[in-house]
Amino acid sequence: MRKLNLLILVLISSFTAMRAVTSEKDLWQLHTSDIHADYVGAPVANGGIGLLPWKEPFSIQHVILNHVFDTDGPKGVSRVLKGINPFLLTLELDGKKIDANSLSDWKQTIDMKEATHNTSFLADKKAKVTYSICALRNMPYAGLIRVEVKALSSLTMKVMNRMDVPDEYINPESRFRTLFESNLRMDVFQTSALSRHRQVEVAASSAFLFQDRKNFAPTYDETSKQLSFTVSLKKGETYSFALAGAICSKRDFIDPYNESERQITYAIHEGADRLMAFHCRLWNELWQGDIRIEGDDDAQRAVRFALFNLYSFGREGTGLSISPMGLSSQGYNGHIFWDTELWMYPPILLLNQGIAESMVNYRTNRLAAACKRAITHGYRGAMFPWESDDAGEESTPTFALTGPLEHHITADIAIACWNYYCVTHDLHWLRSHGYPLMKAVADFWVSRAERNEDGSYSIRSVVGADEYAIGVDDNAFTNGAAIRALEYACKAAEACGYLIPDQWREVGKNIRILSFANGVTREHATYNGEMIKQSDANLLAYPLGIITDPKIWEKDMEYYTDRIDPKDGPAMSYSVFCVQYARMGDAKKAYEMFCRCYEPNLRAPFGVIAETATSNNPYFATGAGGLLQAVINGFCGLQITDEGIVQVPSVLPKHWKKVTVTGVGPEKKTFERGG
Predict the structure, then answer these.
(1) Strands 85-93 and 155-164
(2) Strand ranges (DSSP E) for 454-585?
(3) Is residue 14 assigned to a domain?
(4) Pairing label, strands 29-32, 103-111
(5) Quick check: is 25 in a domain?
(6) What is residue 268's predicted lDDT score, i.e. its pLDDT?
(7) Residues tagged active-site
(8) Among 468, 361, 492, 489, CA closest to 406
């Protein structure tokens, strides 16, 4: 009897463990199973390219090239390029093309752990097809589609690959080559073209990867520009293959034509299994920085998906930043805004200093262009563009006054530099990269501020975070950010052992922050309660930390919450409200704001975040950054200080059991709240 009881206990224990494993796996996955339902695609990216899979068989809507720019017209502003798409696959069974009308039992799953977009279906009731799409983390200009076909009856299968050259290209040329190396046959399909306006050369190469690489040869049709192979399968037989594609540009390679081919011959040599093993290993390293929420599975998936997308859009060692739509689309022309420094960068800085360094070095590497821009506007120091392209010059469409007037970005960037130093304590970086930028920014604000008769300083004619207010004076966020930029420049100079100019302290301590008679922070000198686009004055409490009295936080939030545009306002306002309420100890209001900062913007079927409650863009990376700050800085209470990362008092939503943030800072610390 004792042995039987022991066996039962072992079985129960095993079953419980299985359930726990299954539950944990499910928190890493997003699912859909209705091909006819509303659908907003979710990108997969690797910091170099972004792919946008769709619901039709093997569909990839486009490829986005990171920081590769043409223009949006002959005399237009710069716009990030779509790449030549080498991932177009077509499947025929017994001579009939498989399309959305011939599918049943269709399912898609995004696996965030392995960064794959997976689809399965029954094709014409003749075969079960499973395929997986990924942007290879180990090859930043390459992607891989792995396919498995199980025959439900004897059939002949034809697989075709062609390339899509977007309309923004001219003079496309294609070729097919068979190369031999050590008895390894390599059949490579290639297309190259020039971007229409700036003549940027882009080349894409692709190849099928077979398990039996020595004896299988695809064929190429010169007329249709199509690579294909045909196999016969018996009932019950399973056949696997993969398609590798690489897209290279003149921006990244002197010889993109041959480089794309080299990358594909490397992929053929490595094979799909080795490529995926390396890809997964790198993603496991990224996931050392993670957020775990116990007690709310829906929130866990949404928060992890936000982090997954920011990891996907960034990359260590590139010196590149992340645009508002990441690598999901050409939204906002792929330009870099304050979205990076204020919303996306803070969570990345805490969880992955390698990617954060790339993001901040994007700015330090373009300091010369910012200094030139300051000169053209009559100021000293550095004046960073509101919209930056790869050259670091102003790229805002000329009709938008945000370009000439939204100056707070120059302060936002300096604040990001100081925060990087506070987290890493890298004095060499501060002296060589951070301080030169912070000094130039401080010089800009001293030349930009105007002294009033009472000895205070005003910053006039700006656009603040609330972009509905054009050309206003003493905007709360602009002034607050300038105060912090000047303060941090003084601290950076002291850390580097340099003299601190008296003007930095004088101006920084006397820039005006306005209030109404009742103590509510006034957004700008003429503000009287109009609708605003997003939080502005509220940002002085968090993230700037200039207003420290929770009573004023509460007054400001109560005043401005109902003045935010409910239709076109982005969700980050509610992210900062969540942080403030959580730190005030108001769990109910904090959770209300947490839900408002992302739930209205979720799009079926995977929970892609749109910019506003009424838009449908593929993925709004800025909103992801706000959502992550709500959890990391709000509920978990993490804060960057001059001494490093600390945890301040905060509260969790009532039904949350615990929040755990892992891999924080260079020491990869773990912080918890609750439990």
Answers:
(1) antiparallel
(2) 457-458
(3) no
(4) antiparallel
(5) no
(6) 95
(7) 467, 611
(8) 468
